[in-house]
Amino acid sequence: MDNATKSFFQRDPIRRILLALLFFASLFSILATSLKPEKFDLVVGQSAPVDINSPKDIEDKFNTELLREKAVVNVEPIYKLNPGVRVEVNKDIEKFFNLVYKLQNAEEKIEKLTEEETEEVTEEIPVKLSEKEKIERLNQENDLNIGMENSKTAIKSSVEDLKYLESYINEIVAQNMNLGINIEDLQKQKNSIKEYITNLNEFSEELKDLAIAVINATIRPNKFLDEEATNGKIDIARENVDKVIIRKGDSIIREGEIVTYDRLEILRDLGLLREDNKIDFILYIGIASIVLVIEFIIIAYMMVFNKTLLEKPKILLMIYLIFMSVVIISKAIEGISIYLIPIGAAAMLMSILVDSRLAVLINLCLTVVISLITGNNISFMAMALIGGTVGAFSVINSQQRSNIFVSGIAISVINMGTIAGIGFINSSEVSQTLTFGLYGLLNGLFSSILAVGSLPLWESAFDVVTPLKLLELSNPNQPLLKKLLIEAPGTYQHSIIVGNLSESAADAIGGNSLLVRAGAFYHDIGKTKRPYFFKENQLTTDNPHDKLKPALSASIITDHVRDGIELAKKHKLPVEIRNFITEHHGDTLVAYFYHKAKTGENGDQVDEKNFKYDGPKPQSKETAIVMMADSIEAAVRSLSSPSQDDIQALIEKIIDGKLRSGQLDECNITFKELNTIKKTFLKVILSIFHERIEYPDMDIKKEDGGKPHGAVN
Fold first, then answer.
1. pLDDT tens string 190-221
2. Domain 474-688, CATH among 3.40.50, 1.10.490, 1.10.3210, 2.50.20
3. Which Gene3D superfamilies does the UniProt entry name for this protein (predicted)?
């Protein structure tokens, strides 16, 4: 890979984009692998080799269609009446009886008509027809085909009887047709009318037969199926049928059952058949959506609440690795019990290494992901959310690694209570619930062991300084501090006092007091290379600088920063601690040797740069506090019998000098905080350099136990 390519991939924005893509690809792959169902070779009529359950909710189309067809069968058809049919029936009845009346009254009418009118009538109905001819004529000319007997009855009956019969027929027809007669019920209606007329006592049997014949010949269906309305009603009935849904986890077919066509179609729709090579795009779109939402939420949190995280690709990589590690572990453990999955370990690690609020968010995202993998178990989700949140907050400000085990016990208790509570609410299986609760108890212990065991790995691999790490670095048994104590005891005592001053000041202004204290302990470790060239380590009045040129002395003094960085890197001190070594002098001038050089030979040729530290200036409040404490402690120690006013004036002078020389320009410290720091420094220094009682000379070996008079325990 050439330099240009390396430079491209070393840019922070490119690293962030690549890390985001890596997170998406990794999580998508794991979820796709986990959620993609097993496929089977099955055909209709084959015996199922195993129980096959549905991997997701799906409609049972076959049984849904059966229910819809049943609903359609129960739909009553909608009919509409055609009023024109009744009008036509009435006309047919009227036409028949008019023909009868004409045949019966032809002779009477002819006698009353004019000659011209008589010719017209005789053309229609010949006059002086015999009764037989009238009957034959009626039987031939009527359109009802009522038969010879009924025609005979009609001709022989009186006009009054016929009029009454006609009106009665019209009334019967009206009653029946107003209700509507459909094709299927026509014969039934005719039979009903026939029975009704037969039971009448008002007419002779011949007239009853005539009425039945006329009605049977004229009455017809007037109620017809309204296809549009009926189809609309059918559609509504089909829509009102609830779909038959096979829920996720429900059995599709049991082991040994014969595969039917409808079961095979369900398996095909679910993509569970090997013969079907189609890609389940819906599944993959769903997975991609979930992953994108999770990634968006995490990035949005960082942009709003902790933007500095986005500027640290190494920390982002660590978050990614912790997240994916827990997901992978969950895949391995779910076969034993999902309640053993150590989501709490991720929450504790994130809270210790990064931020407790981010830890809660990561815990939420992990719960969603692992719940998808393990089947969306409500008890597990509640356990993971509550237990992980407890883990995230219980390790805040932990100062010993053993505290993580206490947090693990808290998670165990919470897990067990959550599982038992939900289990007893939703199930009567007491023994099973208690077993799951036991797994939840072990989960907390497992999470704490995993967190404690992996914490040093994350700290060292990603240069993360945790409160626990800072406390360990502050331990006097650390190799570098022991080296400082043995080889430069004066510097060691100086560093301890600077640490106390700095810690108090950081506490007062809300800074990181643990970081300040540890940084102060190591800020002068470079002096162990040439300890006797520094005043605090000179046990005699001999000063080696008296034999050296000022420029060389200044070089030795300033080199303790470079020497300190070399030692820090050799002992793998975190960058945050190394910053105190490089920044605690800023780019200040080694004033004593500079002025000595200026007043010596060739003083006008002295270059001030050769007498300055390389810097940089303090970049944080914490390193600025150590810079001020370092100068103040050394200056106060040089005073003989200082009063409170002397010390206060000295503190004011040194801090104001740092401010005027621009040493505090690059850190975000305020004037208000500087005033607080001054007061804190004065208070601590007065407690350290307080006036002591001078004891008179006396024989310390007394009979009362060897203690001088006036001594205290």
1. 899 888 888 888 888 888 888 888 888 888 89
2. 1.10.3210
3. Hypothetical protein af1432
